[in-house]
Amino acid sequence: MSSNxxxxxxxxxxxxxNTSPSFTGALAPxxxxxIATVFFxxxxxxxxxxxxxxxxxxVRWVDMxxxxxxxxxxxxxxxxxxSLVMAPLRIIEQHTGGWIFGEVLCYVIAPLQDTLASASVxxxxxxxxxxxxxxxxxxxxxxxxxxxxxxILFIWIGCYLGTSFPLLFFVKHELRNGVTTCLASQFPxxxxxIFSLYLVVFFILIPLVCQVCCYxxxxxxxxxxxxxxxxxxSTSTTAEIQIQTSKQRVRTKKRLIRMLVVxxxxxxxxxxxxxxxxxxxxxxxxxxxxEAFPYVNISTMLLFYVKHVINPLVLYxxxxxxxxxxxxxxxxxxxxxxxxxxxxxxxxxxxxxTRL
Length: 356
Prior knowledge:
Elements: H1 29-60, H2 67-96, H3 102-135, H4 145-164, E1 172-176, E2 179-183, H5 189-235, H6 240-283, H7 293-318, H8 320-331, H9 335-341
Antiparallel strand pairs: 1-2
Helix pairs in contact: 1-2, 1-7, 1-8, 2-3, 2-4, 2-7, 3-4, 3-5, 3-6, 5-6, 6-7, 7-8
Subcellular location: Membrane
Protein name: Neuromedin-U receptor 2-like
GO cellular component, one term: plasma membrane
């Protein structure tokens, strides 16, 4: 992160976490403070409720604890921490202008932001790899719940050691111009360049390429399976119910992949612009003096935080399992109640659910 910015508890290493850009435009400082307070309050409240519902749904209903859902829960957990901790800190920063939580929390929270971002990235990548294994290579060993939990543990350990731990040696809790700050201000310039490139390559580019390749291959396989089912339906004498069951299974997988791709695209659209701003600060600093840059800066900051609110909305709109789970939690009902309601007059259960 750039050291000339007003985010006193963010790191110098990555502009992704610098979410309080200096903004000298048409709006007065008091207007900026009001807008920031309202925005981060909405992020905190909506993100906390939405992501807590996602996690509580999986806690409440054991049948939904599939490998894919457990990784989704891990993403919701990172979003929940941002909503509960990081967003309120932004509000406090707007009104205090400095770090008021002491030296210990400085060393905990400043590096933690990079861990949260990278854990979300790797969780999305793990979901893509898991779907690739399940659809493209279904005969490979399955990923059970125990292996998923171990994978999530390694994601957190790896992200902390790979992104946050190096910053601990450079974070300083000190008094500057009468204001207490929490900055990685001692990060050597050359090392900062290397560290920024390292973050971009290993926690942005490689995961993004991996996710895109996995979903492209998954979509191709599903389309091929759909075409095979259509061909069998037109030529085979197999019982109609068996053919329809196979086709419904393919359609269900398609709905799931569609939802996961939407989640991935939303994450990347909210995440990549902030990463681009990081590169500008480190390698194209003259561009930050352009009159339009503060608007671009604050826009990418808004996108970065909006991401922590959107996932529960996507799950509610695109997954009947989560939708039933959310409603069931609010109305103290069970998923079996919804299953009974979904039984049509023919006596066969409806298969509109998007099983994860």
